[in-house]
Known about the structure:
Elements: H1 11-23, H2 30-41, H3 48-62, E1 65-68, E2 70-75, H4 101-113, E3 118-123, H5 131-144, E4 148-152, H6 158-167, E5 171-173, H7 181-187, H8 193-205, E6 209-216, H9 223-236, E7 240-245, H10 262-276, H11 285-289, H12 297-301, E8 307-308, H13 315-318, H14 336-346, E9 350-352
Parallel strand pairs: 1-8, 1-9, 2-3, 3-4, 4-5, 5-6, 6-7
The chain binds S-adenosylmethionine.
Amino acid sequence: MRINSAGGISVVKTMAIIKELLSDVFEVNSKVFDSLIKLLDIPYAESGAVLEFADSVRRKFCGNGILLRGIVEFSSYCKNNCYYCGLNAGNKKIERYRMDEAEIFEAAREVYKTGIKTVVLQSGEDSGFDWDMLTHVVKKIKKEFDMQITLSCGEQEEKLYENWKRAGAGRYLLKIETSNKKLYEKLHPQMSFDGRLECLRMLKKLGFQTGSGIIIGLKDQTTEDIANDIVFFSKEDFDMIGINPFIAHCESMLKNYPDGDPYLTIKTIALTRIITKNAHLPATTALGSIKKDEDLRKNALRAGANVIMPNFTPYKYRKQYEIYPGKRCLKENADIVDYLEKMAEETGRTLDFSKGDSLKGR
Ligand code: SAM
């Protein structure tokens, strides 16, 4: 198990392990895995050297900007029953919504009006949604606004992915959640790990800039699993990787399970930065939500993260997209860019309003 087990490590020893890690990084082998375990085991309070090193890797490979992506959650219907998610099909207590074409388009306009040039259109795996309408709205957004479009609508048929790509969507997010097949299948009834991986590879083949990611603190997840996740990211060479803590939802199977450790999440982001170098890594909304009085997205920005995803779901729907409780974005409004400007200033960064395409040079 080992999560948060070790203690007492000097900066010199930490740097020696990082050096060992980097000497092997081009050939991901069991030594890399061992170094990752050692570094994940260092308590957060003693992880300064790892976090600072990750910050320097971010500076070298991604620059000083914080890329912005405006997220619009356009349907809260979902056919799946992921154990951790508040949108699980079995949750009869939430009121569901679907945005129509005009609403999605107007939400994209709101993103564009702030100067942000990526809109992320996300939904549950909604089997009743008119996906051709989404294809149409993607075309319309591309025609009207100089914007990049990221889709995040779960596992779909190749033909549909192809239609979306042809309509102009350039990116797709599909988190693997955990790279441990057994654990994945325990937490996702009626879903298959291989099927998800196949979708990720299909998206890449179709030319999407492809994002994946994991949740930290899932029931039965071990430190070894997290080290393997980081190795998995390196092997799959994703353009974007989202890493966020689990936050328990009272209408999910994991309702009695403790929230994930936000500091282990930040360390995982740091190590992912060190290993993947130029992947885009968001300071995730869940990190900003897990503590009431502290926005831990700042800590992530200081430890290798280079992206923030402010929420542009119309206010009337926002609280209905409750994947976990206490989402920070419920309080966010038109002044969000001012808030993020302040956050950038505090962390010695600048907001980057460019499209922020993949740095992988494919
Ligand atoms: N349906 C799409 C899919 O399957 O990729 C996207 C929507 S899904 C709600 C978006 C992400 O929310 C998931 O990939 C998962 O990582 C995250 N998520 C859901 N429930 C969560 C929870 N309780 N704590 C933290 N993250 C959660």
